[in-house]
Amino acid sequence: MCSVSYFVAANTSVENINAAFIKAGKKVNLDDIYRLAYGKSLKEAGPKGDTGYKFVSMKDGTHLFQKILEDKGMPDSKHYILTSINTQINN
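Below the sequence we write its predicted structure tokens.
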């Protein structure tokens, strides 16, 4: 998934990103993520991938991440969490 930022910076469509994941033989692709996390197919989200869903907290992201892990057979998927480090430097 770390390659997604490269594709986004290159202004590549989500369909092209998904195709690259499939071609590379990744166990999880964007269509899986959209289906499990948003209840939509990738095609329903359009070329920009906008689902209209807005994360309110990392708890939201963690819940969706755990759903994906569980679907892919990850043992103890509930033990995986997403975090965010938000720091600010005051000058």
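Residues 1-52 form one domain.
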